[in-house]
Amino acid sequence: MPGANKRLSGKVIWARRGFWARFTPELETAFRRHYEDDLVQRARWSAVIAASVMAVYSLLDVLMVAPEVLPHFLWVRWLFMILPLLCVSAISYTRFGARHLQKFAAAASVSSALAVVAMIVIARLNGTPIEYEGIILTIFYFYCCGGLRMKWALLAGCTAAVAYPLAEYFAGLSPRELAVRSLFLISANIVGVISAALMELAARRGFAQLLALETMSNSDPLTGLLNRRALDRRLADLWETAGRSGQKLQIAMIDVDYFKQYNDHYGHAGGDEVLRELAALLSEHSDNTQNLAARFGGEEFLCVWSAPPDQPAEARLEEILRQVRQLSREHEKSPLGRLSVSIGAVELQPGLLSPMDAEAALRAADALLYRAKSQGRNQAVLSRLRTGRPTSAKEPLQTLSLVGS
């Protein structure tokens, strides 16, 4: 997807590129949530698979391990490897467990690493040494299969890399062999870190492509603003959030004055350029997750802003009218001789209204837009809704006008 790795709808998404890539702060938070959900699934099933493999190994222990150490092997394997892994899978289905699954999975991984070290040392102390490669396989599990974030995988891997040489040293392994095995464990951790980083990088690129697809499906292709499909969903979210937080919503319908005449006189390319300029202006006023700007249809736009109770809408509406005037775009078919917009806006607090009043608020803003047009255009008409009723003639109105010189 051309440009998907750099920008989405004109917004930079990467704060840092390369091997240790990071998104911009807002997208990084969204990616973390997305990635954590994926890791929950991976940790849940990998724990079951790992426990099953360990159970098979316990059967092999019965056939291959010397009788004098077999009980110790079985106790260590089942108590400190299989049981913790099964517990990780089980608690992942609870809300608390899923929220803290990384910590539980890291604890189970450290327990498994120490259990492998314990079995190797038990065998050596009883004169029946076994191969140490199991600790390397365990390290690769931490980084590649266990569903652990890098820091937790590194904790478990480093625990194994430190605990094993110390245990073997006190168990009497020769210095030369101990040095060689320690080097292999360090190498396994390095390879594991690189593998985990590459997997996270692939996840980041996949997330960027997912964002690109979502942006394409939710954006108006001409202006880059939200389309009607995305607008309905986002408005419902903002309405619910404002209802919980006690914030106001300011909903504004914005329409380009005499746009058909502009299109007929300057051509559709000129009209498209006007819509893109206005979209860019409105986007600057809606640049966080608590606001939205959308193309409602044709030359009509919708903006929704969340605001604290002490921040009235007048200043924002006046600023939009002023900025449109400062575009200084000629419009010979307009009585003003330049481009202008009309705005109908309502200001309300969703927590005081019924959950079904979002549509009524949109209808009220649309009615006020037509009132602004009937009063001469190039102005904003604002109404504050204090109940669940649509705007009526008795509602207090404030008209903000900027008349071209």
Automatic annotation (TrEMBL):
Provide a GO CC annotation, any one. Answer: plasma membrane
**Source organism's superkingdom?**
Bacteria
Quote the EC number: 2.7.7.65
- Name a biological process GO annotation: cell adhesion involved in single-species biofilm formation
Q: Which UniProt keywords apply?
A: Membrane, Transmembrane, Transmembrane helix
Q: What class of enzyme is it?
A: transferase
For this chain, one GO molecular function annotation is: diguanylate cyclase activity
Q: Where is this region: Disordered?
A: 386-405
Name the PROSITE patterns for this protein.
GGDEF
UniProt KW Glycoprotein keyword: no
List the Pfam families hit by this protein, alphabetically: GGDEF (PF00990)
Which parts pass through the membrane?
A: 45-66, 72-92, 104-123, 152-171, 183-203
> Catalytic activity, per the record?
2 GTP = 3',3'-c-di-GMP + 2 diphosphate
Coiled-coil residue windows: none
> InterPro entries from the entry?
Diguanylate_Cyclase (IPR050469), GGDEF_dom (IPR000160), Nucleotide_cyclase (IPR029787), Rev_trsase/Diguanyl_cyclase (IPR043128)
SUPFAM superfamilies on file: Nucleotide cyclase
Report the residue ranges that make up the GGDEF domain in this protein: 247-385
Q: Which NCBIfam families match?
A: GGDEF
Q: What is this protein called?
A: diguanylate cyclase
The upper taxonomy is: Bacteria, Pseudomonadati, Pseudomonadota, Alphaproteobacteria, Rhodobacterales
